[in-house]
Design brief:
single chain, Rossmann fold, 9 strands, about 45% helix, globular, disordered N terminus
Length: about 290
């Protein structure tokens, strides 16, 4: 009798051992499989080219902070540095860009976050020149709202060897034609074919500087449309956000656009929208 009890105890211990072993192996296998599925679905490629993020008017660390965290999961990207720009244009960098294939991301914070477009464009130039001194030869640029506007202001300046080459550019909810809603007088098709029929001072400056745009960049324009009756993200008219496209097409630049719709297409919600995350990840790293 004791012998049978002893045998049952041994069998129970053996079964328990295999059950626990199975539990210990299951989670890593599931995690690995999930990563493989995400990688397969998104076709994410690993690159050493840093992507530099610029917030808009009145923005700050929170403007892109959440998106950067989500991109670390979605695209296995890594935020490697944050660069603070003082009111006088002095730079303070936290972190080091590794130059490894980590899909590196750099966040730029303008401490004077309500400064002019001209100042922002100058500060962008200073940031990129600093990265060049660190051995960074090419970068991608992402800007929300005025950050996107200022990126194009920078791109329309003379490009020189003191700055990295620009590979890809993403503008999110950027008012390229200021806040003019030309859809009141023209259709979207007419806008994309002929350009806006009303020109702001900002857009006129773009027209004059378009020849300086690097012709081999790739551009993604992300716009917000709250509803079929409100062709706007609540701040920037859809027509203004799209208005840069015919200008880029005229210069032979590769440009693609995505319109995000619904309540989460609100101006300040665009950089919190997971649909925008996927567009950004696919455009940069797919």
């Amino acid at each position: 009798m004791k012998k049978r009890v002893w045998i049952k105890m041994i069998m129970s211990i053996v079964v328990l051992f295999f059950v626990l072993s199975g539990c210990g192996l299951t989670k890593p296998e599931e995690k690995q499989t999930k990563q493989q599925v995400v990688s397969s679905e998104q076709n994410i490629q690993k690159t050493s080219t840093p992507t530099v993020f610029f917030h808009g008017y009145s923005g700050g660390k929170g403007s892109f902070g959440s998106m950067l965290k989500r991109l670390t999961r979605l695209a296995d990207a890594t935020q490697e540095a944050t660069i603070y720009v003082s009111e006088t244009g002095e730079l303070r960098q936290e972190g080091t860009v590794s130059k490894q294939k980590t899909n590196p991301m750099i966040q730029v914070i303008f401490e004077d976050n309500k400064s002019t477009q001209d100042n922002q464009a100058f500060w962008i130039s200073e940031v990129l020149a600093s990265l060049k001194t660190q051995g960074i030869e090419q970068v991608n640029l992402v800007g929300h709202s005025m950050g996107g506007v200022s990126i194009f202001d920078y791109l329309m300046q003379d490009q020189d060897t003191m700055h990295p080459l620009i590979e890809k550019v993403i503008a999110i909810g950027a008012p390229f034609n200021e806040f003019l809603d030309t859809f009141e007088t023209q259709t979207q098709q007419e806008l994309l074919q002929n350009g806006p029929d009303q020109l702001s001072a900002r857009y006129e400056n773009y027209q004059m500087g378009a020849d300086y745009l690097p012709k081999d960049i790739q551009v993604e324009i992300i716009s917000g449309e709250l509803s079929a009756d409100e062709l706007s993200d609540g701040t920037v008219p859809l027509a203004s956000s799209l208005s840069i496209i015919p200008l880029l097409n005229a210069e032979g630049i590769n440009v693609h656009s995505t319109i995000i719709t619904g309540e989460q297409a609100q101006h300040s919600a665009l950089h919190e929208n997971e649909k925008v995350d996927r567009v950004v990840a696919n455009f940069l790293w797919k």
